[in-house]
Design goal:
The protein is of the alpha/beta class. Helices cover 39% and strands 18% of the residues. The protein has two domains: 23-281 and 492-513, 3-Layer(aba) Sandwich (Aldehyde Dehydrogenase, Chain A, domain 1); 286-476, 3-Layer(aba) Sandwich (Aldehyde Dehydrogenase, Chain A, domain 2).
Length: 515
């Protein structure tokens, strides 16, 4: 196979026809060879359940067992045994493992991407881009680990014949709880953070993401990770709760809802000593379009950010503040861009938007549309795709509201964006900041003073300016650290950046007299 173009979240305008041709060949083989199997896992011995793809009713991903309480206990016990050796592994051992793992991920990139496509209903480009991100994630974190000498550094020597150094050591065993929307990247991000820093892992994918979870487990085995260092359990909230509250777990890495994340913190507060929790818990992600914006670029950036992956991203743009001087012109361009997006079966090359994930999302979508019709107006969308599709195929929806409210403050996680007309950037940012979250925000302006005001005052950890590929989306390892502020994050340090790995470590000082 000749070298195919790299798919990222930002390289729009590239000719991806060779990638599509390759996927046209692989899709039938993937359905025949991977889908519909009966899977097994050592720490999932409960009754097997069928998981269906959201793409079409009756399209089975396979039969997957669930973990019993005893399975969770045994997985944690296995991790504690694996931790005895991995916690004291050398920097060189862990870097060599990272290199092997990246090679396996590269070899299985398209298989992993297609698993995410079928499992979540991602478009081809979203799915392959996510698989590509995993390669760069492992490579970047390994490079940071190496560049920082495993986070060991010399300290000041106070007296003769005395050496002092700071050493960062693993906590022991991390529970990793992953969400559905990025079953590869968010899982591998948290797992790699724990493993590369010397921790053992017990990992639970989202309940219906057992397929990608088990494939990730296979890549780690192929990469030669020692037995017991990585362990996977399968199931729903009861399995996740037992895992995060297990006395044999030394820390938790979690991505998901604010409600669930905070429940983990509340439990930790009841323990004799606090355990580390690394959590990312949603976002609202406003975009700002000023009177000095390139409106074509703004419309494309907002549309891509609002409707990519059906708006099911914690960084998706779900509210855009537009200066009233250009609001009508911007809305016209946004509606034109939205109407050009193909909604349908994500197995097809032309599809931009697949189905939303589950009937709970459909119910939230219908409630949001109802609220918008009551409090404002629906400019486009607000309905399902129509005949021949299940009702979880909904249309990209743009609404306009005259005042802030639930739809401008709550995370929606669907292809739904609110337009708010405003008089000036200062008022817009004040309203955009007045939310519980603080993940990402974007601006479109050609005025340097407006740009600087945004950079100085936007209360979010990930800021973008004039980005046509995504007004508030598209972070990449080593390029855009992904840090949640306020209710989104907990540590003030994000993934994909230089401060991620130290969160999985705790400091110890070594002072040694040499004579």
């Amino acid at each position: 196979m000749s070298q195919l173009p790299r798919v990222t979240y930002s390289n729009i305008g590239v000719d991806f026809s060779p990638v599509h041709a390759h996927l046209d060949e692989r899709l039938p083989r993937f359905e025949a060879d991977i889908l519909g199997q009966s899977w097994s896992s050592p720490f999932a011995t409960g009754q097997a359940e069928s998981i269906e793809s959201p793409i079409a009713a009756g399209l089975s991903l396979g039969q997957f067992p669930v973990s019993t309480p005893a399975d969770v206990d045994e997985a944690v016990a296995a991790a504690r045994r694996g931790a005895k050796t991995w916690n004291v592994s050398s920097l060189e051992e862990r870097l060599a493992f990272a290199q092997r793992w990246r090679e396996v991920l590269a070899e299985r990139k398209y298989e992993l991407g297609l698993a995410a496509l079928y499992e979540i209903g991602k478009s081809r480009m979203e799915a392959i881009g996510e698989a590509e991100e995993c390669l760069d994630m492992v490579e970047y974190y390994a490079s940071e680990l190496k560049a920082n000498n495993g986070y060991t550094r010399p300290m000041n020597e106070l007296v003769a014949n005395e050496t002092a150094r700071s050493v960062m050591k693993p906590y022991g065993v991390f529970a990793v709880i992953a969400p559905f929307n990025f079953p590869l990247a968010l899982s591998i991000g948290m797992v790699s953070g724990a493993l590369l820093t010397g921790n053992a892992v017990v990992y639970k994918p989202s309940p219906a993401c057992a397929l990608t979870g088990l494939l990730i487990a296979e890549t780690l085995e192929e990469a030669g990770l020692p037995a017991g260092v990585f362990n996977i359990v399968l199931g729903g909230g009861d399995v996740g709760e037992r895992l995060t509250r297990h006395e044999g777990v030394d820390g938790v890495a979690f991505t998901g809802s604010h409600k669930t994340g905070m429940s983990i913190f509340r439990h930790m507060a009841t323990l004799p000593h606090m355990k580390p929790v690394i959590a990312e818990m949603g976002g609202k992600n406003p975009a700002y379009v000023t009177r000095n914006a390139d409106l074509d670029r703004a419309a494309q950036g907002v549309g891509r950010s609002a409707f990519g992956l059906q708006g099911q991203k914690c960084s998706a743009c779900s509210v855009v503040y537009v200066d009233n001087a250009v609001k009508d012109a911007f809305v016209e361009k946004l509606l034109a861009f939205s109407s050009s997006l193909v909604v349908g079966d994500p197995r097809k090359a032309e599809t931009f938007m697949g189905p939303v994930y589950g009937q709970a999302t459909v119910a939230r979508y219908e409630a949001a549309v109802s609220d918008a019709r009551r409090d404002g107006k629906v400019l486009t969308g607000g309905d399902t795709l129509g005949q021949g599709f299940d009702n979880n195929y909904v249309l990209p929806t743009v609404v306009e509201l005259d005042a802030p409210g639930r739809l401008t403050r709550e995370e929606l996680f669907m292809p739904f964006v609110v337009v708010r007309g405003v008089d000036g950037l200062e008022a817009a940012i004040a309203e955009g900041n007045d939310v519980p979250y603080g993940l990402s925000a974007g601006i479109f302006t050609q005025d340097q003073a407006e740009l600087q005001y945004f950079l100085d005052h936007a209360q979010a950890g990930v800021l973008y300016a004039n980005r046509a590929s995504g007004a508030t989306t598209g972070a990449w390892p080593g390029a855009q650290p992904f840090c949640g502020w306020k209710g989104t994050g907990v540590s003030g340090k994000g993934g994909l950046g230089p401060w991620f790995l130290p969160q999985y470590l705790r400091e110890q000082s070594h002072t040694i007299m040499t004579k």
